[in-house]
Amino acid sequence: MRGASVIFNLFLASSRLQRKRAVLTIASIAWGSVALLLLLAFGQGLKNQISTANRGMGTSIAVIWPSETTKAWQGLPPGRSIRFLPEDVALIKERVPLLNGAIGEFVTWSANFTYGKKTVNAQLVGTDVAYGDLRNHVPKPGGRFINDDDVELRRRVVFLGDELAHDIFGDSDPVGKELLINTVPYTVIGVLEKRLQMGTYGGPDKNHAVIPTTAFQAQIGKKYLSNMVVRASDPKMMKTALADLRKTMAAKYTFDPDDDRAIRNWDTVEGQKVMGNILLGIQMFLGIIGGLTLMIGGVGVANIMYATIKERTREIGVKMALGARASWITGPLLLEGFAYTVVGGLLGLLVATSIIIALGFVPMNNEALQFLGKPTLSPAVGVISAAILGTIGLVAAYFPARRAARIDPAQTLRYE
């Protein structure tokens, strides 16, 4: 206890004598900490926002399009068109157990939506109830998505994308109002809740409208599905599920199961993996930049410790000649470097947190800002920062302290 008390008193005496140097050292560490924390927080915010945008179109889904065969098979020539029928959805549900959701889409790319004297042209989708869950079509409060009765009774009801609804009805609530789709009256039952959507096929969902598949077929008269959307029960099994789906379709439509151009697919699970790796790389890059900035502060601490020892060489030599223990020399220096680092780190944490909280009040109306996201200081970021700071503090103080402990008292008398 006495040794610790002596070390602490020596540390306090040294700090009081060199206040200006202590303040500058703490400021350099605080600056590096702010840079590190802000860079990591921006990286985390970007990751969170892009993950949300990736889920905007639906989670663990794949989109399947019919195409044309490119290989001869069982005496049939290549170049045959493959088309999906509505009953194919039931077939793949039955034959591919790795899927826990499948839906067909009828799409017409150009339909006229008329309300009063205003007419807007947009994409129209005819589908079934499960589409809302698979494609993440969450209605705004006061509205709903299409249900089983709408499909069974062939009701003329429509669910609008949020931007399309604004284009047609302006700021007024469209739910319950009637509009014309290609001159046929439909009642608006819901509007898509505003959301981020990174992946699209045929344009973002905010600009399209959804009606029951029965109403679509009665009005538009399409026989073949435009595409199918499927979801794997386990995202890790998506590739196997898609292979099983291809075999099922190949058996029905008589094409080579290895002909991967007969039907095409967009596996969003694979795309999310790639995006996850890109975001991890960005986070690592930002972390390295912040870490290097913080290391500059650590080098500053080490230089100050070396300068301190050089200035106090005679003093240290006299103390050792009078019987001071080695720990009384190294202890205050280690404590000094560690204390400066901890105080500077805490100060940087306080400043960075204040900036992040202030940025949380900035409106995210701009689309670019929406994708950038708000910086987030996660517990993982705090642990990483604390580990880096602690390491820098100990390393910066250890080597000067070791040098001080090895000074020969007799040689120190020659120092000026």
Describe this entry's structure for a reader.
It is a single chain. With about 425 residues, the chain is an alpha+beta fold. Helices cover about 55% and strands about 15% of the residues. It has 14 helices and nine strands. It has helices at about 1-15, 20-55, 85-95, 130-135, 150, 160-170, 215-220, 240-255, 270-310, 315-320, 325-360, 365-370, 380-405, 410; strands spanning about 60-65, 100-115, 120-125, 155-160, 180, 185-190, 210, 225-230, 265. The radius of gyration is 34 Å and the shape is elongated. It starts with a helix and ends with a helix. The model has no long low-confidence stretch (mean pLDDT about 85).
**Which blocks of ≥5 consecutive residues have pLDDT under 50?**
none
Largest sheet: 6 strands, mixed, barrel
Rg, nearest Å: 34 Å
Topology pattern, helix = H, strand = E: HHEHEEHHEHEEEHEHEHHHHHH
Shape: elongated
E-strand count: 9
How far apart the termini lie comes to 35 Å
Structural class: alpha+beta
Number of helices: 14
Spatial sequence of strands, sheet with the most strands: 2-3-7-4-6-5
β-strand amount: 15-25%
Task: Determine the fraction of residues in helical runs and give it as a percent range.
Answer: 40-55%
Please state the average pLDDT score: 83
